[in-house]
């Protein structure tokens, strides 16, 4: 059974940086595509970034050039480096793992960016 645990959220000023981490518990981490999503109050959950097992990456338009996703297959972790944060980045950030029909979610970590 796969479990995902996010950490690293918090309060940061506009223009600041934050790094989120996601710890993966389970087998075969390397085959999973990993992703970060976020959900702001009153809004739908949106894709932030993805990283495939091949390490190819994809980003949502609103974070391109500011956020970087990476993975460590030895430590079974995924990271989201967030720079130049804006108040509109405020949301609960969720880690996601997917392979074939299997999909798993973490519990989320709150990121709040003050203006």
Give me some keywords for this one.
single chain; 115 residues; mainly beta; four-stranded antiparallel β-sheet; 0% helix
Strand content: over 45%
Helix content: under 10%
Compute the gyration radius: what is it? 13 Å
Describe the largest sheet. Answer: 7 strands, mixed
| N-to-C series of helices and strands | EEEEEEEEEEE
Q: Got a strand count?
A: 11
What count of helical segments does DSSP give?
Answer: 0
Mean pLDDT: 97
Q: Spans with pLDDT under 50 lasting ≥5 residues?
A: none
Overall geometry: globular
**Terminal Cα span:** 40 Å
**Secondary structure category:** mainly beta
How would you summarize what this structure contains?
The chain is mainly beta and 115 residues long. It has strands at residues 3-7, 10-13, 18-25, 33-39, 46-51, 57-59, 67-72, 77-82, 91-99, 102-105, 109-114.
Outline the structure in words.
With 115 residues, the protein is mainly beta. It has no helices and 11 strands. The strands form 2 sheets. Strands 2, 4, 5, 6, 9, 10 and 11 form a 7-stranded mixed β-sheet that branches. A 4-stranded antiparallel β-sheet has the order 1-3-8-7, with no helix packed on it. Strand 5 and strand 6 form a beta hairpin. The protein is globular. The N and C termini lie far apart (40 Å). The model has no long low-confidence stretch (mean pLDDT 97).
Topology:
Layout: E1 3-7, E2 10-13, E3 18-25, E4 33-39, E5 46-51, E6 57-59, E7 67-72, E8 77-82, E9 91-99, E10 102-105, E11 109-114
Parallel strand pairs: 2-11
Antiparallel strand pairs: 1-3, 3-8, 4-5, 4-9, 5-6, 7-8, 9-10, 9-11
């Amino acid at each position: 059974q796969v479990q995902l645990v996010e950490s690293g959220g918090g309060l940061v000023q506009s223009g600041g940086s934050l790094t989120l981490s996601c710890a993966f518990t389970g087998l075969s981490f390397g085959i999973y595509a990993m992703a970060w999503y976020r959900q702001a109050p009153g809004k739908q959950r949106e894709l932030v970034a993805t990283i495939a097992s091949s390490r190819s990456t994809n980003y949502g338009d609103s974070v391109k050039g500011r956020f970087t996703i990476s993975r460590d297959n030895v430590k079974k972790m995924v990271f989201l480096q967030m720079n130049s944060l804006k108040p509109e980045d405020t949301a609960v950030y969720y880690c996601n793992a997917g392979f074939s029909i299997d999909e798993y979610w973490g519990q989320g970590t709150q990121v709040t960016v003050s203006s």
